[in-house]
Specification:
Length: about 700
Amino acid sequence: MNTAQPNDVHAAWLPPEAFRALGSRHILVCGEGTLVDTVRHEAAQACARYGGRVDLPPPRPVDARSASGTSYDLVLALIPAGLLPITAAAVEVGYRRRHGPGALDEEGFLLARHAEGTVVLAEAPAGLLYGLFHLVRLGESAFGLTRPMELHRPAMRRRMLDHWDNVDVHPVMGQVERGYAGGSLFWRDGARQADLTRVGAYGRLLAACGVNAVAVNNVNVHTTEMRLLTHRLGDVAAIADVLRPYGIRVHLSVSFAAPVALGGLPTADPLDGGVRAWWADTTRQVYERVPDFGGYVVKADSEGQPGPFAYGRSHADGANVLADALAPFGGVVHWRAFVYHHRQDWRDRSTDRARAACDHFAPLDGQFRDNVILQVKHGPMDFQPREPISPVIAAMPGTRLAVEFQVTQEYTGQQRHVCYLAPWWSEVLRFTPWGDGGPTVADVAAGGSTAGEAAGGGLVAVSNVGDDPFWTGHPLAQANLYAFGRLAWDPRLDPVAVLDEWIQLTFARSTPGGPGPIRRALHEIMDDSWHTYERYTAPLGVGFMVRPGHHYGPDVDGYEYTPWGTYHFADRDGVGVDRTRASGTGFTGQYPPPWRDVYESVERCPDELLLFFHHVPYGHVLRSGSTVIQHIYDTHFAGVEQVAAMRRRWERLAGMVDPGVHARVRELLDEQLRCAQEWRDQINAYFFRKSGVPDAYGRPIP
Ligand code: GCW
């Protein structure tokens, strides 16, 4: 295994300096297995650089001191272990006294610090790996004063990244659909990348933030990509081999039409015996090649992908046939709920895309197999910078649900704009769909918060990584990937604290002037950058004012007369979508109380979602006290000012961060400023022309 970065690749949040504290210690690693070997290897690499030492487990019981008479600074051990130094053994005894066996589960770890040293214990190898990376995050403080025993376990068992990577370069979407970071890590021009070193480095970064599953191809499954399931399984196995040492399981996006397209069957009807047998047999062959294969991801009956509707079958019928094939091997199907009519007539005011997922799936609650995970985009539309939560999240108590985020910044600046998304995700995860005091969205995804409830499906996100030297195109977009993993591990984490961790790991330890200035600057630039982005783009939750197709930059009416179901209905009097039960599409009725009533009421609806739920006159007074039209002007002027300030702030870091990183971010901030001005001017001009209402402060509107 090679933990070295390829030379031309940025080390992201695992630069060598991040291992300094660990690498100068005397370390004992006890246990066996692939992931324990990874831990040992990581520790050895760090020690080779910083002068520490890693010992193999002793052949006989040891006391607190090693044979050489030196005590261990750090013991990392899989328990039960018979041969622990006395301090570590005491921690193990303490743990047993307080917790039953299995309390740490498959991925948890225990951290304790005594006068003699630091101890990390785990009951399964993955726990030891996560414990190691936790120590990296802690740095010197892992070896400071005594720490009480801490138990760390992930809130979500499944913490997954979906890659929308194509094997062939797609004529419209390219190598990576909605990818803004170069080519694919896995595929290039129809072939698997010959050198998988970067995939290994990626797996290591993912393990260090807590991700444990990766789907390696686009949910839009084209002809070549379909064949990964059968003819090109060797490619999938090669990727799985490289990710396995970091505890990451590989998943595949598959086409529902595969039995016809690959198997030569006359039908893909999920209730057909031949089709069931084909899926069972094909899946068995996958597990022969990749024994720890994670399972399938399916986008069916959506945006042109085939699905069970063609056979008059339900999505439960469709998902269950794949689930049955995977069940004997412990695999799961991630079945996406992103199903809507993408060829609707814009004149038809009765069809509401926001309603579609709930209308399709809620009636199927309870019909899915246990190993089906319904994967729901967090909002009812499509990863806009602001949406309410998807009502599906509250509508299917008898189904395992995964919540899907978009780390790739399709609608949030395409990795040319700084837009730290964790505050947004955190808001979603903490949202209580049944009102104050009830379970959160994170609880639903984690599952099991109420007896009898289905196990959760975890968190999934579309990755923002490609073969770009900085991984994510915009170097600061790495923070989004890092934060996704951390929030999937613990959704209660404060997103600003997570950003601080990322800054600390990525930059601060290597900064000559000490970490203070760079930390302050990056917080000033990034903490509120999502709100800044929101300010200069589509107002008050209305969404979709992007340029159709590539989705970058403003085009207020770009989608207004299209079949995509994404409209804002601005006219001379007002703007917004009436989704009320009283006079609109009735979407508000898909929420349980209290939200069905909060969103229904124009007075109670939160400002930031007002135009998602209501069509209001430009003079409507918001809860903030401003009118809608004045709010539009104010936020658009302010948003651009904030980007200009971000840019000035970054300038002052010249000489303090790596010159390559500095130059790339500077160039992108220039583009962000240009684009934000374009947004401001188009949106302001559009609404001024529609409404005829001038800006109260007389600022220039073209
Ligand atoms: O946001 C839309 C994107 C599509 C994507 C789709 C989906 C992979 O514009 O490119 O297709 O969502 O989530 O399936």
